[in-house]
Design a protein that fits this description.
Elements (H helix, E strand, L loop, with lengths): L2 E5 L3 H12 L4 E3 L7 H8 L3 E4 L8 H11 L4 E5 L4 H9 L4 E4 L4 H16 L9 E4 L2 E4 L4 E2 L1
Parallel strand pairs: 1-2, 1-3, 3-4, 4-5
Antiparallel strand pairs: 6-7, 7-8
Helix pairs in contact: 2-3
């Protein structure tokens, strides 16, 4: 079961997202305080983060950079900011995807599934069995030598 951390200051939206994700058997965590997000992130070790940009103590850009120092966890930004520059900044600072509010929950679920599949599932490079011998790589699944 994947753990998803929702960092959103709108409690009603965070709870709506939480309920939707739990229907797909994800374990969802909404931080107790928006003041200690870095510590909660380290304790939770989520498999994916849904991150708003406009937050009361630290903005999402700062938090994403901070998370990237510790982890390669997928980060999907969810924000009312719709400018190209905000979306580019989100991606340049380590974000994996961006969703503009208001959004459909079906699109959010699809993006969550895609990110998890890409990082941990069938498209993950971590799942490819490779053996290195001198300067050769053996792909054990495809029976190829590179």
């Amino acid at each position: 079961m994947y753990k998803i951390m929702i960092i959103e200051d709108d409690c009603s939206l965070a709870n709506l997202i939480k309920e939707s994700l739990e229907k797909y058997n994800y374990q969802v965590c909404i931080p107790k305080s928006l003041r200690n997000l870095e510590e909660e992130f380290k304790e939770l070790k989520p498999d994916l983060v849904l991150l708003d940009i406009n937050l009361p103590y630290y903005d999402g850009f700062y938090l994403c950079r901070t998370f990237r120092r510790e982890s390669t966890v997928p980060v999907i930004f969810i924000s009312a900011r719709s400018s190209d520059m905000d979306q580019v900044m989100a991606m340049e600072l380590g974000g994996d995807d961006y969703l503009v509010k208001p959004f459909s929950l079906e699109i959010l679920i699809a993006k969550v599934k895609a990110a998890l599949r890409r990082v941990y599932g069938e498209y993950s490079t971590a799942n490819i069995a490779k053996t290195e011998v001198n300067s050769f790589y053996i792909d054990e699944e495809k029976f190829r030598i590179y």
